Amino acid sequence: MKTVLLSGVPQSLRTDAWWMDGAPAPQRAGRAREGWQLRCGLLVVLLALGDWLVWQAVPGLSLAVFALALVAAAVAMWRRRVWVLGIGAVAALPLVEVVNPLTVMIAVMGVSGALVLLVGVPRADLWRAALRLWPFGIAQGVVDAGAAFEARGADPAEVRIRRALLGWLMPLGLSGVFALLLIDANPVLLDWLSGLDRLRLPDGVRVMFWAALVPLIWTVLNAPRLRERLIARRRAPRMGPAREGLINPVSIARALVLFNALFAVQTLSDGVFLYAGIGLPEGMNHAEYAHRGAYPLVITALLAGLFGVLSGPWVQARPVLRALLIVFVVQNVGLVLSALFRLDLYVDAYGLTRLRVAAAIWMGLVAGGLALMLWQIVARRGTGWLMGRVAVMAAGVLYAVAFLNTDGLIARHNLAQDRSQSAVYLCRLGEAVIPFIAREPALCPYRPVEVKAPRDWREWGFRNHRTRRSLAAVMQTQAAP
């Protein structure tokens, strides 16, 4: 009886949503149809909203609005966990500052996290579910599309309509796409069609943009239906001290003795040449010494951290190995701090660049991760404890960096230190350096001193707004008698 009552709704589209909770079977059938129609209606609305906000507009505030609209639509659709809207707003906030690959990545991660929290995924499965959401959601959308046309209704008229759609949708749809692309590629035909005032056809690229948005929006609207697939996992065999191989108590003990000895030599060398002020060999200055060692030391610290994670299960139960590992990690923290000091010396000599700013942030992250590892060893915490906190720390740092005006920081530092040799580099940076160039017109004589304003609110960005205000203040100061 239930199959007949719900026959108008494909099996893959049925769900125990709020509109079906506690309802008798006949009402559940009607509400299932209503839920299906609601999802389709929201799909059309969000597709139109995405086209209006994003299409043919320079990415700006519109992306933040669209990201928040997706989360709001999912919350409205499923009527649960309204507080995840706050997560969506926090994730979209960096896009208000500026649109770049980092802020887009933060927005995607934030929307994914909001959706898996809306689903009710257990805390231990959040990261796995967020990574699975989009591929699983897009695949489910394809299944839903096929199921919608395969469903058999009790009404003969509905059956005829489904058969007609099934027979014509693919030929007409692909023919329309091919026609748009061919018209766009044929100047004569395109010119002829452009003369028809009443015929306004979307171009092929716009149709492909719609086609790309549809599965993403459908995934957002159907996220709760994916819960079981998002949290499903195989139980991997537990790796532990019972399985001895290249990593075993004897090899770890010998490795830690050798590693500590090698790192002690490097620490002593840095103490002599960098901190004690003892002269370097002839032909080498402190800036060159710092530059040669900064990046290799960070790579060394990363490998040492990986060794610490792999050796952790063997070390916890052996006090001597724990003591050796603690000394090793402490030396690595000192090594990273030495790399930061080297980088500071090199920046003092040659100025800031984007790569050097990124290196400083990365070194700080590595030092923080090693400090957490040290606490993990002392407090006898598990590897999962360490990985979770390192992930939270890295996410927090990346979120803060999204609001950092790197180009402005570089220009301010280099010009304050009178790094004339970095003038060519400054001239190649983004619009954030324009106010600094305006103060010294001779710095970049061939670069226009202007910052483009957004054409409308969709392209507005807070960093661009601040840069235009700074430039206006500089120009006003220079124009004053």
From TrEMBL:
Name of the molecule in the record: DUF4173 domain-containing protein
This protein's record includes keyword Chloroplast: no
Record key words, sorted: Membrane, Transmembrane, Transmembrane helix
Keyword flag Membrane: yes
Transmembrane annotation, as ranges: 61-78, 98-121, 165-185, 205-224, 293-311, 323-343, 355-374, 386-404
